[in-house]
Amino acid sequence: MILMRLAIFLSLIFITSTLAPFATSATTETQFSDGTTTYEHTFTGSGTGTAGILSIPYGAEVTAAEFRMTGEAS
Predict the structure, then answer these.
(1) Residue 22 in 3-state DSSP?
(2) For burial by CB atoms within 10 Å, which of 13, 29, 34, 55 has the most?
(3) Cα–Cα distance measured from residue 15 to residue 19, given in angstroms and rounded to the nearest whole number
(4) For residue 10, is pLDDT > 60?
């Protein structure tokens, strides 16, 4: 009887935790103007180069941004 109550209790905790606001993901998926969510650029020379254009919507609040790219010639 105790195991049955424990199983019901744990099931209720599981179900209610999925409904809690903090259980939602904080990840925002961003799409580019062509609808894709990824961008790939192959650098053909050494030095600096552009890798696309980033635009931030008016009124957007950027709290942090960081880009680190390393690699080797393919």
Answers:
(1) helix
(2) 13
(3) 7
(4) yes
